[in-house]
What we know:
The protein is of the alpha/beta class.
Amino acid sequence: MNYKTPLEFSNHNTDLCKIDASIIWLHGLGADGYDFEPVVKQLLMSDTLSNVRFILPHAPEIAVTRNNGYIMPAWYDVYGIIPVSKEDEAGIQASQRYVESLIQNEINRGIASERIVLAGFSQGGAIALHTALRYPLKLAGVLALSTYLPLHSKLANEANIANAGTPIFMAHGIFDDVISPEMSKLSRNLLQNSQYFVSWHEYNMAHSVCIEEIADIQKFLQQVLQ
């Protein structure tokens, strides 16, 4: 896979040597790293997140079966309607390895793993969840926005105890017609039944992000990165 260089954002008033936390934020199907730039810039206005570096990677461009083979940015292939009966396990695992390489890059830059948050929207949220629960070093938290847990039947055998207690923020729009709230709730229930710490949030929106959600995200990030 060919991956473009991720975008990076931090507070312009913060000395780079004072950055001690990183948030890797994955976009949804058909978008790119620029999709969440406005949200990130809004979050960086908070004094409590002034020491944070945001990493916004771009998914590789692949042919997406569900969209008649149209080539677009995607973290993995999608075969049919959601909920899915067939999943692109190889594609999901390839994105997992890429995200793990981004985590390692931050560790190499001096950021402790427990000061790194994985975040993602829709397909990106699925990869964030999938990767975080299998990662062998403790992470600070997970933001799973308008998404679901992929390859859920494999979680019990593949989960790493290092992130068994990592807090997970799950959010969904009650009018979402791309990934249904019911599908997301099934993932939430599975995680909670597996003893993960999931905070669930619902908003009056479709498959998107709203102002109230951003405020809640900011509170969550402040808590896990305090």
